Amino acid sequence: MKIAKIVSSNSHIDYVARVIDSLDSDEPPKAADYCFGQFVRLEGDQQGVIGVIYDSRLVNPEYGSFGPRLSPRPALGNFSPDYINEQGILIGILLLGTVDQTGKATHGVPRQIVPAGQDVTTIESTDVARFHSDGDGRVHLHYYSQVIANAAQFAIPLLESIIGQLCADCSDAESQRLQVLKQSLSWQGTFGAMKL
Q: Which residues, including other chains, have CB under 8 Å from residue 79's CB and lie 6 or more apart?
């Protein structure tokens, strides 16, 4: 499902997308489609780029515009047909890796640059599981350090969210490994932030 379009970037792996709304589509996405920790795909020429939503911002240029209004908001479309609602939602997408045409996943920094205007789509949980597993069914998070280095204050909650999603679709042994990692993250979040 298409949920957004790329509008800018903060770095080679940190992109900003604007969530599509009723002006862009007859069926705009629901809030659950672009929530924190949602995996997304951006199509490339030879491969798809996989990312995860890790941040959001509200855009409301009308806030602070306390001047008099000549008409209520619904009537603005009649007086000014080119009136555009500039309010919107921006989401931060951290790129995690790529999937080639054969389905082979590679974690790390994608080589390609994602252009402005590129569609952002959600991916199914089965595709998320496939992106994180090798041929033997073991779960991999080779982008772990990439998330820690680039997601700032959202790194630990993001990794905990990812681990929670992966635990639902993996074996008991892999789930136990992920739970150990999650406990370590929780410990780091609790005691790493303490100042003595």
A: 70, 71
Give the DSSP per-residue string, 123-163: --HHHHHHHHB-TTS-B--TTHHHHHHHSGGGHHHHHHHHH
**Could you report the per-residue pLDDT of 170-183, keeping only the tens digit for each?**
888 888 888 888 88
Domain ranges in the chain?
A: 2-140
Q: How far is CA 135 from the centre of its chain?
A: 26
Interatomic CA distance for residues 28 and 24, integer angstroms: 8
Amino acid at 173: A
Q: Give the residue carrying structure tokens 């599981």.
A: 129
Give the H or E element holding residue 88: strand 88-100
- Tell whether pTM > 0.85: no
pLDDT at 195 over 90: no
Q: At residue 7, what are phi and psi to the nearest 5 degrees?
A: -115, -25
